[in-house]
Design goal:
Blueprint: H1 2-12, H2 16-33, H3 39-52, H4 58-73, H5 82-96, H6 104-120, H7 124-132, H8 145-161, H9 165-178, H10 185-201, H11 205-215, H12 223-239, H13 244-254, H14 265-272, H15 279-286, H16 301-306, E1 317-318, E2 321-322, H17 332-348, E3 351-353, H18 354-361, H19 365-377, E4 383-386, E5 391-394, H20 400-403, H21 431-455, H22 461-464, H23 469-472
Antiparallel strand pairs: 1-2, 3-5, 4-5
Amino acid sequence: MSDLSSQLSAAAALPQKDKVTAYVSLLSSLLSSTPAPALPASLASYIEHVVHSDAVGLVIARQVLGEVVRAVAGKQGALGEGTVRREVIERALETLQPRVVSFEEQAGALRECLSDIQQEEEEWTEAARTLMGIPLESGHRSVSDAYKLSIYNRIVRLLLQDEDAVQAEAYLNRMAVLMHTTSDREIQLGFKLSQARVMDYKRRFEQAAQRYQELSWAGELDEGERLQALGAAATCAILAPAGPHRSRILASLYRDERSSQLPNAGILRKMFLDHILRPREIAAFEATLLPHQLARVAESSNDVAAVDVSDLGEGAEEGGEQVSKRTGPTTVLDRAVMEHNLLSASKIYLNITLPGLGALLDLHPSAAETIARRMIAQGRLRATVDQIAGLITFDPAVDAHDALGGAAGVAAPAGEEDDGGRAYDTADAPRTERWDEQIRRTAASVEAIALMIEQKELMPPQQQAAVPAAALGAA
């Protein structure tokens, strides 16, 4: 160590134009001749002298530290060992900390190298925190938007590896401010993926499903990655709250020809067709979920208070049937399935008793009523609750599919009559009949337009002759 001190003093005494060469030569000598166990201490003394010695000067110190960074990044000599390299970087950052404002670029490069080492050792949060220490908004140096985006992108992905969606969303918002400045598809796709994952972790499943579905069409991803994104979209759509918005997403996914290759294609089909899900199907789907998608749902005090605790004793019965003692859903999946089955029941029955609904959802009747009331209040279920009669009456006039426009989107106002004097009253008709009625109205509208064109002679004679007779005749 005394030999190193004398060499450093000798280099400091040289003229300014020769100092950089002398210090770089000494660095190369240290890396090639110093044993690995002693290298961290030797380099720490070397860096401390360069940073804190008045004889070196700021300009020369920055150049010399740049060579140190290149040696660390290039894994020269004993720095090829991960443990040695990590200790060297940590001690170098500790030495630079008092004067980090003067060496922001070099400190940032060392932090990137340290983050890579921590990432290799699967220390995700520590790697993210190391990158957070890079000064990007200090004002002492100009940092490009592209560099900021690359660092923010790495931080978000590392935080999501440890499922820290709260901090990840904060840095994702910083990325969103700068996304308009880049055309780098890798950054853009990384941003979309991080968006989808944050929404997934925060249980905003509808938005997550839409983002995943967008990624499933990205041409830059290979077929396996696109199919994986489609599977994630299907999972999030299944877990989303039941209602018109989810129906639209399910329809889009179900009509995708690739959905038949998904492991959860069966439950996706049942949900799209509004079929009631059975416990065996739910258990098979549950086995494919990630831990955060199996998170438990806390019951509110109002939900618990709504259930008559006197009815929860052993052997409680109503109408000769055993009454469930469950007061609400316990997991995210549980809640999604209950809401879906309730929506499916509204397509099958005109009305249902609260005990009957409770038996269908495996809930206490009061808890089943609570779920129905919440869905009605949120506009996700068209029904009325008669608490005195203990009956829920569903409104067949508007369902999730009609709310999205229905077939052809040409529904006529209630009471309107066709040319035969028949009223367009389809409120009480089954869905298949309403679908046929809307097709008939569309055909009638086309016929009316064709007759108007013919009567007003809006079509040239040569084109009119080419129109098939069926287009101008009865639809």
